[in-house]
Amino acid sequence: MTEEEIKNYFGNTQVYKFAGTLAELSELMISIGISYNYLVDQYQVYVVAQSEINDTRATLI
Amino acid sequence: MYAKLVVGNSAITALGAMRDIGRLITSGSPSTSLLGAFNTASSVIIDATPAGWTYVGSVTAADRPTIASTGTSTAMTTDTNYNLCFSAPCLNSAVLKYATLTVSYMSSTVGNSFCLAGASSATSQGILTNEGPRITETQANASSNSEVQNAAILVTAGVILHVIATARHCTIIEEGRGMSAIWESTQTDAHTFYGIAPFVQYCHPASSLTTRVPYVTPQATTNAIATSIMTAVFNITNPNTGTNYGTYDPTDGLLWNTGSLAQSLAGARSNTITTTGAPRYQIGPVFYSLTTKGFPTQYVTGVVPVYWTGGGIGSSGDSVDVNGDTYTFFNSGTGFGIILKTA
């Protein structure tokens, strides 16, 4: 999927590319207390959350 | 469990309604004594068979580790998120399906609507992974609430909610308007291989509308929402590409993703006639298919005792005989009706 398709999939909200595994993502989001939805494409994790993700592994696309 | 919940002459807060529903579906002996917001004189538990859902948690401290008691204030603070999370086991596997109730209008003054959604997991702190589509709106946007209400369950004056739940499903029907449901479905080999729970979120709070909310995730909105259908399956991996969708809309418009979810329901809810020309109504099973994602047809009917039928063809509570089994008809508005067994 292209990044445009991934943004469309999430409804064009803020989408982050996460440099880590789903287990690491889960650990991070539970530690900061934010609900989230993910998509994994070509082993890359993309995530949207109910508020901003301030972590060096999360980059806005 | 089947509870007919009456709001009464004055609106109640969404938080109060959510707590009442939560207490009922998690109780071992559902009764009106568990109601703190709905009108206890008019509401009635018609089938007190325990629903079999388990309370998981909430973002609200007052609702941890258990749902706040009936005497607790249900007033809401503006622009604050409120949810209640639940789980129930699936029929043929050890995995759990999750459901959540969330305040839709985050407003202390017009907070009279909420959403039901599914999720692939939840924590005791109310943190959800892969929650299905729903909408929220802040106090600042409350003036547009008449539009957004199309995608939410209302608890304004005069509303009656029918809450039917077993371990296989949780269905909330707003009398004469629409319905929202979390329904377990048949388990396919793909579910077994990936270890995921076979269930679907089908929310259609205003059944007269036939267009869907174009999101697969919870969304805050500042715009008028003229659509109503919000549906998703959870944690779907396409075996051909390896792409893992946290949520996926099974009515995404692709012709080869077929099913009977309501926007393609025309054939299943049509009327017909007897040989003498008298009106007769059809019923149809609930099913969906995700063939583009490697998941074959999955039936809800057969796991959950539910069928589609015509809208407005009777009164809620009417009995319908389906091959010798007694189902109950529910008036979910003009778009379609549904019939369910309550236990």
Could you characterize the architecture of this molecule?
The complex is a heterodimer of chains A (about 60) and B (about 350). Chain A contains 2 helices and 4 strands; from the N terminus they run H-E-H-E-E-E. By secondary structure, chain A is α+β, with helices and mostly antiparallel strands. In chain A, strand 2 and strand 3 form a beta hairpin. In chain A, strands 2-3-1-4 form a 4-stranded antiparallel beta sheet, covered by helices on one side. Chain B is globular and about 55 Å long.
Short description:
The complex is a heterodimer of chains A (61) and B (343). With 61 residues, chain A is an alpha+beta fold.
Helices, strands, pairings?
The complex is a heterodimer of chains A (61) and B (343).
Chain A (H helix, E strand, L loop, with lengths): L2 H7 L6 E3 L3 H11 L3 E6 L2 E6 L8 E3 L1
Chain B lengths: L1 E5 L7 H13 L17 E4 L6 E4 L25 E8 L2 E11 L1 E2 L6 E7 L1 E2 L5 E2 L5 E4 L6 H4 L4 E2 L5 E7 L2 E6 L3 E7 L4 H6 L4 E6 L14 E2 L9 E8 L6 E5 L22 E3 L5 E3 L1 E3 L1 E4 L4 E5 L6 E4 L9 E4 L2 E6 L6 E4 L3
Parallel strand pairs in B: 6-10, 10-16
Antiparallel strand pairs in B: 1-2, 1-12, 3-4, 4-5, 5-7, 7-11, 8-9, 12-13, 13-14, 14-15, 15-17, 17-18, 19-20, 21-24, 22-23, 24-27, 25-26, 26-27
Measured between the Cα atoms of the first and last residue of chain B, the distance is 6 Å
- Low-confidence stretches of chain A are none
Helix content of chain A: 25-40%
Q: Give the number of domains of chain A.
A: 1
Mind summarizing the main beta sheet of chain B? 8 strands, antiparallel
Largest interface: A-B, 21 and 23 residues
What are the secondary-structure elements of chain B, in order, as H or E?
EHEEEEEEEEEHEEEEHEEEEEEEEEEEEE
Low-confidence stretches of chain B: none
Strand order of the largest sheet of chain A: 2-3-1-4
